[in-house]
């Protein structure tokens, strides 16, 4: 456990320190990959900065929804966040921004979503150093400052987040994903990772062996999965000419007649 990072005479909470590092790396990724997504470098930087701000507000809103008693407490910008707010609220915020900008929501989210995983991975390293979001007791592992032998769930989640980032970005570069599928794959990947690691994390169960984190993850898995299927259905339907649609329908009717 390393609650503070000291640089010269400056002492910074480790959670905030690694979160800032994650933000910087996220912005570097946006600028470095701008050509891949067809943006100018300054547009990429602007969109990335916008994304960071929207993430912060989304995570903060979700935290207050999960902890109503915190409304009466002084607002802290270095703690008091729920990462699910990033995934539940940020797309809505981005959608509203793209309406004003009159640009494609899917294209913007495809560009922004992979970088989120870089930021979250560093955020989890900060959690490990700060001793929060800790794992279950297994008799070995790390400490949260009060209990030893905890499962190192934070670095595990950080590593899996980076794997999700690498896979989705590689598939996008190879043009294996349709428009909108990149961002949904990132969200789907994170929710699958989170659902799994939640069992290794200290939690309060509310439905059998599942916590609120499990419920949020399941909802996100279902929504993203169905959304991806819809995008492919829409793409395949648009790709059929009227003549081909008519031929497929005729073949289907002939098959029904044969069965009868």
Your description of this structure?
With 260 residues, the chain is mainly alpha-helical. Helices cover 68% and strands 7% of the residues. The chain has 9 helices and 5 strands. The protein has helices at 14-32, 34-37, 41-66, 84-101, 105-130, 153-173, 181-197, 212-238, 242-259, and strands at 4-7, 10-13, 137-142, 205-207, 210-211. The strands form 2 sheets. A two-stranded antiparallel sheet has the order 1-2. A two-stranded antiparallel sheet has the order 4-5. Helix 6 packs antiparallel against helix 7 (181-197). It is globular and about 70 Å long. The termini are far apart. The model has no long low-confidence stretch (mean pLDDT 90).
Rg on CA atoms, Å = 22 Å
Query: Rough shape?
Result: globular
Spatial strand arrangement across the major sheet: 1-2
**Relative helix content:** 55-70%
Helix count from the secondary structure assignment = 9
Structural class: mainly alpha
Please report the total strand number as a whole number: 5
Distance between the termini: 71 Å
Q: What's the quaternary structure here?
A: single chain
Strand content: 5-15%
The largest β sheet comes out as: 2 strands, antiparallel
Low-confidence stretches: none
Sketch the topology as an H/E string, one letter per element: EEHHHHHEHHEEHH
- What's the pLDDT, averaged over the residues? 90
